[in-house]
Write a structure and sequence with these properties.
The chain has four helices and eight strands. It is of the alpha+beta class and about 240 residues long. The longest helix is centred in the first third of the chain and has 62 residues.
């Protein structure tokens, strides 16, 4: 019989070049995908930074334009800058008999009259005039309709607490009436230590008050069909 030629067997050594090529192709594909993702991320980041820079540049541009306009206004600008209005208004009132004077801020965002009490020794009360119930012949301790004789009130930047009193309140020389109010024995250091007035006259509606009879607007309305406050840019309103 004739001898058959020997076949070349597919040994492992012959598969290595093909496997290496396959791995290289996969690696390039992965790297290419990562590169595209990185490019997209970079483009987005660059676009966001450009937008941010544009907004900043726009703000500076308008600021410079406004500055040039103000400069062109000349003397009119100087004259206009003299008109500066206060953002808060306060004035004088008194409590008790004989009268104890206080400077209070007129606050339409609250509904109670609050002044420091003579028993208050904390830093928030220290620089201010204090109400002394024992020095007034018309002073009396009161409670609201819920039987409460004291309360704690939290403002946006501070806190006060004290007892309820009734006494003669005078605004100006001729407007006097009995009013319920809070004599605070505690006032937080911030902001009350630095404020340029002694207390707060809340001119908000009665839903902001401690109860029936504690609302200054209602007290004024019961005595006059119309009333007003004169506000000024001088020291007191």
């Amino acid at each position: 019989s004739s001898a058959k030629p020997a076949r070349a067997c597919p040994c492992p050594a012959s598969r290595e070049p093909f496997a290496m090529k396959l791995l290289l192709l996969l690696a390039f594909a992965l790297l290419g995908g990562l590169s595209d993702a990185a490019k997209v991320h970079w483009r987005l980041r660059k676009s966001w930074q450009s937008s941010k820079m544009a907004r900043r540049h726009e703000a500076l541009l308008f600021a410079r334009t406004a500055a040039r306009s103000r400069s062109a206004a000349g003397s009119q600008l100087v004259e206009a800058m003299k008109v500066v209005h206060k953002t808060a208004y306060w004035g004088q009132m008194s409590l008790g008999s004989p009268p104890q004077p206080f400077k209070v801020i007129f606050d339409t965002g609250s509904g109670n009259l609050i002044v420091p009490a003579s028993s208050c020794t904390v830093p928030g009360c220290a620089p201010h005039k204090k109400y002394n119930s024992k020095a007034s012949t018309t002073s009396s301790f009161v409670t609201n309709e819920k039987g409460e004789g004291s309360s704690e009130i939290t403002f946006g930047t501070g806190q006060v607490s004290g007892d309820f009193y009734k006494d003669k309140l005078c605004i100006g020389d001729s407007l006097c009436f009995d009013a319920n109010f809070i004599a605070a024995d505690k006032m937080t250091t911030e902001p009350f230590q630095e404020i340029p007035f002694d207390g707060i006259m809340g001119l908000g509606f009665k839903d902001l008050s401690m109860g029936e009879g504690f609302n200054i607007v209602d007290d004024l309305s019961s005595r006059a069909s119309q009333f007003s406050f004169f506000v000024s840019d001088d020291d007191d309103s």
